[in-house]
Amino acid sequence: MKRAAVILALALTVMAGSPARAVQPDEIMADPVKEGRARELSKELRCMVCQNQSIDDSDAPLARDLRLLVRERISAGDSDSQVIDFLVARYGEFVLLKPRFNPHTVLLWLLPPLALMGGGIALWVYSNRRQRTGQSGEDALMKLTPEEEKRLERLLAAEPPGEKAD
Amino acid sequence: MIAEAGHYALVLALGLALIQSVAPIVGARRGDIALMEMARSTALAQLLFVGASFTLLTAAHVTSDFSVVNVFENSHSAKPLLYKITGVWGNHEGSMLLWVAILALFGALVAAFGTNLPLSLRAHVLAVQAWVAAAFYLFILFTSNPFARIAQPPIEGRDLNPILQDIGLAVHPPMLYLGYVGFSISFSFAVAALLEGRIDAAWARWVRPWTLVAWIFLTLGIAMGSYWAYYELGWGGWWFWDPVENASLMPWLAGTALLHSALVMEKRNALKVWTILLSILTFSLSLLGTFLVRSGVLTSVHSFATDPARGVFILLILCIFIGGSLSLYALRAPQLKQGGLFAPISREGALVLNNLFLTTACATVFIGTLYPLALEVLTGEKISVGAPFFNLTFGPLFVPLLLAVPFGPLLAWKRGDLLAAAQRLTAAGIVALIAIALMWAWLRGGPVLAPLAIGLAVFVIAGAISDIAERTGLFRMPLPVSLRRARGLPRSAWGSAFAHAGLGVALIGIVCETTWNSEYIATMKPGQVARIAGYELKLEGLTQRQGPNYRETLAQFSVGLDGEKLPAMTPSKRSFTTRGMSTTEAALLTRGASQLYISLGDASADGGIAIRAYYKPLVLLIWWGPVLMAFGGLLSLSDRRLRVGAPKPARAARRLQAAE
Question: Is the pTM above the cut of 0.95?
């Protein structure tokens, strides 16, 4: 049913191709507070026939219909979450640009923090292991390798008299 | 004739690439110098033939030869000459041809300037480069031939998409491709190193400038694209977290990480294995971006499934190259020797931290972009992942990263002193706190996060200045000494300071634009006045004009601020008859780094016109930031040690001295 609604909406938009750009003057609500809420909500809702545009940005007729719908619900006294629920019930999760946390999106939401944590832990384990296996950690870091000693000697020997560029 | 010659030149380039894929490697295995040297000539010849092919397609576009399908579908005889030329890459086939032309250019550059590379390394690098090239020549010739003819040539073309008829198209795609494709060099170097089974310091010295070149172009290309979207699309947005944008952001994030890890590898011979992996990943993400944009998979998974020829071909290229190089990596990487040790608190440690956050940010964009596609393919369920998701997950990753940025350059190699670095950053910290306090006092209970973000940005900028002040002894020594020291400072030190400051500058722009953007939307009639952020915009009148291939409605606005008269603004709306499409040409009035922005909507029946006006404070900083970053990159590139093709310094001692 949801799918059918989307397809229908898509078909309608393709047929009616009149250009309009994002929020139109005649859509704006009289109450600035309510209008502000409508704008914030619009930024989170997808224009389903566009490529990844919110209905706030899109110039498609469907986006206009959705913007008007959002304002209609707001003036009917719906809270923000009620408006969202209403739209999801009508158009499916696809309408949300920020997916809700549910079994299907667990990985989407958890992978980024897990990647950071995993990377951090991997680094910690790795540096610990290298500290232990590397020539007894601390001292090795402070000492120059024989190769570096040689380079240092060469450097000092080759230093031109007078000033030196930092 | 022109089209056939172009087609044939491309076939010849494929032949050369196939030779170049095999001969040098066989030569390296047998120790045959002649065979290895062959890679050089074939790489140069490839550029010649692909260049010819590209020039011939351009010629077909310029002469409006509508018997060529590509010209017919994307050109019009009345189109201005500039757009006839840029229209060459304003479509799928032509842009792929540009892609391979740039790939050939980079291959030829390695061949021309790589004379001081070890012969077998160069042979391997060019062979790998030829594998990529051959795959894409085949792709073009089999699925996206730009030279196909029409049996019955039409008299007029269908014109280029009007949104693309802009100077942006002349700059943005070539820049972006120079970046994307430029990363193929570090990829080829990485695979060559894995094939040879050894990497040394010379390897890192070679990879870093090439990565830097690609990174500079990609940075500018992305920034340019963002500014183009900002003024062309008519509602003043500059970043949409669109999958196409994400496709270019991912290689940028990975490339930035690569730039920093290559630094560790060059200076300290550490992080070798990781640098190799990043080189592979960065170019893999470029390939992935090409796949996402070119296969049609983004429009809909279904449209991809119904016309799969192109998509499947690129997917195949993707799998072979990414899968192949990662397998090779898994096979060979354990044999590579690990280099220098370092304590967690050190310059190396800071750069590792930078890599951790940048790769996580890259992974976040990757997951957000591909998750909906994967979910739909696996379960059929459709979800959207857009700006609100990315702002919530990507944004926070940059906070610790930016906090750490000023510390990095102040830490010593091998083993640093965090406390000492913090002491040197005291001044920067104080400046940042003052900025926060001032913002707070000025706003009094406005948005909470914005002043903090501005403070962070100020800290990054002040940190970059402190770094330079510290190195030159500014305020501690007499001015002439400082100035002399400033001149003696390696250009790469200046480069990193500029690039880091650029981050802060961009952040200020982003915060100001998103927080304090004022908007005015209304239907106006001539004579009416709109007030926005203290400016008075008076609609003086509407006029019509005929352009070369469009009709235009212009609106004249006179602009005033506190009685002072400012230059007039004339936004317009163009309708292109051939495609039946219209575009808005926003009018921009720049005041310092801030801009007034007016774009037109529809005309109403009673003679009024819908307008959208914005005042965007400090919005230009969003793009000045990346320009500063690119400038920093350029400075770093001009550093004597890195100059491409520079002869080796006469004495080892001199080189060491320049390395801080």
Answer: no
